[in-house]
Amino acid sequence: MILTLDIGNTNIKTALFSGTDMVNYWRLSTSITNTSDEYGITIMNLFRHAGVDPKAVEGIILSSVVPTINFTIEHMCQNYFGITPMVIGPGIRTGINIRYENPRELGSDRIANAVAAYEEYGGPTIFIDFGTATTFGVVDEDPKTGAGAFLGGAIFPGIKLASEALVSGTAKLPRFALAKPEHVIGRTTLTNLQSGMYYGYVGMVTNLVQRIKQELGKDATVVATGGMAVMIAEESKVIDKLDGLLTLKGLRLIYERNKSGA
User: Fold this and answer.
1) Would you give the DSSP letter of residue 184?
2) FRET partner for 20 with CA separation of 20 to 30 A, picked from 116, 196, 234, 255?
3) Residue 254 main-chain phi, psi, to 5 deg
4) 260 domain-assigned
């Protein structure tokens, strides 16, 4: 079995795959103060609770947007699984062409998303990851090679991050729960905040998808993933599919394409 780890700014998403089938899925809090033993004991307990033998893991692959935690996680993998993990980075085979001017700047989670989006949905596909940051990416078929190609995308603050910045940057606005309000025209400060954040965010997503399609010159499948994807997709008319495991599926695919050197 293959263990996949997607290290984000807020959470670590992890899934265990047997072939193409996902066996288990867990989420951990990202903490740069945790030691490798703390992470190792947590994951061992999750395996024990699921009735899975850690010795069944034959390979590990991780993507990370938190470089300061990478050594800790790699150390954990070596100590608790006896495996040096494969890390998404320069030189790894993805099976798609990266059209970024400087591919080293591209986040490893976006690479995994691009690989999975093209494999699962073909091209052109617009994939949106609703995490701490909201990232857009576009994949299509390269007309010269016939292979998938990551064309680029856009990044803006995630809805939780934006709401926290709004509250912390103002003196009188209260903290509020992110929720879809009944009306766009709010009659309290709370519903004003919820309306502006929720419907404003849906509008940004809609506008950006429409502009990307205009630039492509053709229609595209729009796939959403990440913690806030379901909430936004409930109102947005531009999201075609929800795929909460997109990044982890991409990691599994990349592992399979590189496992001879794992």
Assistant:
1) S
2) 234
3) -65, -40
4) no
Q: What is the pLDDT of residue 260?
A: 66
Domain co-membership, 119 together with 182: yes
Give the rounded distance of the alpha carbon of 207 from its chain centre.
21
For residue 191, give its domain range: 96-247
CATH number at residue 46: 3.30.420.40
Q: What pLDDT does 142 receive?
A: 82
157 burial level (CB within 10 Å; 0-12, 13-18, 19+): middle
The tens digit of pLDDT for each residue in 13-52 reads 999 999 999 999 999 999 999 999 999 999 999 999 999 9
DSSP SS3 for 189: helix
Instruction: Round to whole Å and give the CA distance between 205 and 137.
Output: 13
In a domain, 253, yes or no: no
pLDDT of 11 higher than 60: yes
Looking at the 3D structure of the chain, how many domains does it have?
Answer: 2
Mean pLDDT over the full length of the chain: 93
Return the active site residues. Answer: 109
* 3-class SS of residue 2: strand
DSSP 33-88: T--HHHHHHHHHHHHHHHT--GGG--EEEEEES-HHHHHHHHHHHHHHHS-PPEE-
Place of tokens 């309306």: 195
SS (H, E, C) 83-134: CCCEECCCCCCCCEEECCCCHHHCCHHHHHHHHHHHHHHCCCEEEEEECCEE
Residue 136 identity (one-letter amino acid): F
Number of H helices, E strands in the chain: 7, 11
Which residue carries 């495996």 as its tokens?
83
